[in-house]
TrEMBL record:
Catalytic reaction(s) noted: (6R)-5,10-methenyltetrahydrofolate + H2O = (6R)-10-formyltetrahydrofolate + H(+); (6R)-5,10-methylene-5,6,7,8-tetrahydrofolate + NADP(+) = (6R)-5,10-methenyltetrahydrofolate + NADPH
HAMAP family: THF_DHG_CYH
Residues bound to NADP(+): 164-166, 230
Tetrahydrofolate dehydrogenase/cyclohydrolase NAD(P)-binding domain span: 138-279
Family matches, as SUPFAM superfamilies: Aminoacid dehydrogenase-like, N-terminal domain, NAD(P)-binding Rossmann-fold domains
InterPro entries linked to this entry: Aminoacid_DH-like_N_sf, NAD(P)-bd_dom_sf, THF_DH/CycHdrlase, THF_DH/CycHdrlase_cat_dom, THF_DH/CycHdrlase_NAD-bd_dom
Record-annotated Tetrahydrofolate dehydrogenase/cyclohydrolase catalytic domain positions: 5-119
Pathway membership, UniProt: One-carbon metabolism; tetrahydrofolate interconversion
GO cellular component: cytosol
Assembly and oligomerization: Homodimer.
Protein name: Bifunctional protein FolD
Length: 282
C-alpha cells in the first residue's frame, strides 16, 4: 500500500509554533511583519497571495500586499524591494512571480536584503545554501524536506532524484538533499530517458508543472514520491505532476495535491518571517 504523506497536520503544527513566537515578539515590541510584492493580475497568484495573507493574520503576523500592477517597470519593482529592505519594521519580503514582461525575478530579487529574503529568491541566498552557509531556502524547497522529515523518511546515503531545476524548487531541493547526505541526481527538460533515472530513486521529488508527467513506469517499487507540481484543472481543481492513480500501490508513499507540499510552504514562509524578526530582538 502507498501511504498518503499529508502536509496538513505538519502545517498546523508549524503555524501553532509561529503563533506562539509571533505573540512573544509582539510583547517584546517587535511585531513581525511580512510584505508580499505583487506585479501581476494573474488570478491563481492572487489566490495564493490571499492564502498567505490569511495565514499570516491568523498567526499574528502583519502582512502587507504591495500591488504594483501588471505593468510595473522593473525599476519600480526594484525600488520597492530596496525600500522594504531598508524599513526596520519589515522582517520578511516576498517577490511574487510571475512578473511583467521584461522583469527577471533573479535579477530583481538581488535588491532584497538576504536577512529578509524569507522565500530564498536572492541569488545570494541560493549561493549561501549551496555553500552550506545559513540562508533562507525557498519556502517550497524547505517544505519538501520538512515533509520528508515529518514522515520520517531517511535521507542519508539514499538515492534521491529531483525532476526540475528551477531556482525556486528543483535546484534548492537538490542542495538541501545534498546537505542531508543523499546521493542526488537532478533531471530536467533535456534529460534523456527520464524514467531510467527516476526508477532508481528511493526518494523522488517532482517539480515540473506538467500534469501526469510521472506515471507507474517512472517509479521504482517502495519509492517515496514528493509531488510539488500544482496544475489547475478545467473544473477549477488542482492536480500534481504525478499520476497518483498509476503510482498508488507501487510507491511506498506519495504526497497529495492539494494538501501536501502547498500548506507546508505557506507555513514555512511565516516561520521564516518570525525567525527573521527574532534576530531583531537579540
Ligand atoms: P519552472 O517552469 O520554473 O521549472 C520547471 C522545471 O521542469 C525546469 O527546470 C524544466 O527543465 C523541467 N522540465 C520541464 N519539462 C520537463 C520534462 N518533460 N521532463 C523533465 N523535466 C522537465 O517551474 P517551477 O517554478 O519550478 O514549478 C514547478 C511546479 O511546482 C509547478 O507546477 C508549480 O506550480 C509548482 N510549485 C508549487 C509550489 C507549492 O507550494 N506547492 C510552489 C512553487 C511551485
Amino acid at each position: 500500500t502507498t501511504a498518503v504523506l499529508s502536509g496538513v497536520e505538519l502545517a498546523q503544527e508549524i503555524r501553532a509554533q509561529v503563533t506562539a513566537t509571533a505573540a512573544e515578539l509582539t510583547d517584546a515590541g517587535v511585531p513581525p511583519r511580512l510584505a508580499v510584492v505583487v506585479a501581476t493580475d494573474d488570478e491563481s497568484t492572487a489566490w495564493y497571495v490571499r492564502s498567505i495573507a490569511r495565514a499570516a493574520s491568523r498567526t499574528g503576523i502583519r502582512c502587507d500586499v504591495v500591488d504594483l500592477g501588471a505593468h510595473a517597470a522593473p525599476d519600480r519593482i526594484r525600488d520597492e524591494l530596496a525600500a522594504l529592505s531598508e524599513d526596520p519594521s519589515v522582517h520578511g519580503i516576498v517577490l511574487q512571480t510571475p512578473l511583467p514582461g521584461a522583469a527577471r525575478a533573479e535579477e530583481l530579487a538581488a535588491a532584497l536584503s538576504p536577512e529578509k529574503d524569507v522565500d530564498g529568491a536572492n541569488p545570494v541566498s541560493l549561493g549561501r545554501l549551496s555553500a552550506g552557509l545559513p540562508a533562507f531556502a525557498p519556502a517550497t524547497a524547505a517544505a519538501v524536506l520538512e515533509l520528508l522529515d515529518h514522515h520520517q523518511v531517511p535521507l542519508s546515503g539514499r538515492r534521491a532524484v529531483v525532476v526540475g531545476r528551477s531556482n525556486v524548487v528543483g535546484r534548492p531541493v537538490a542542495q538541501l538533499l545534498l546537505r542531508r547526505d543523499a546521493t542526488v541526481t537532478v533531471c530536467h527538460r533535456w534529460t534523456r530517458d527520464l524514467a531510467a533515472h527516476t526508477r532508481q530513486a528511493e526518494v523522488l521529488v517532482v517539480a515540473v508543472g506538467e500534469a501526469g508527467l510521472v506515471g507507474a513506469e517512472h517509479v521504482g517499487p517502495g519509492a517515496v514520491v514528493v509531488d510539488v507540481g500544482t496544475n489547475p484543472t478545467d473544473d477549477g481543481g488542482l492536480v500534481g505532476d504525478v499520476d497518483a492513480g498509476a503510482v498508488t500501490g507501487r510507491a511506498a508513499g506519495l504526497t497529495p495535491v492539494p494538501g501536501g507540499v502547498g500548506p507546508v510552504t505557506t507555513a514555512l514562509l511565516l516561520r521564516h518571517t518570525v525567525d527573521s524578526a527574532r534576530r531583531c530582538t537579540t
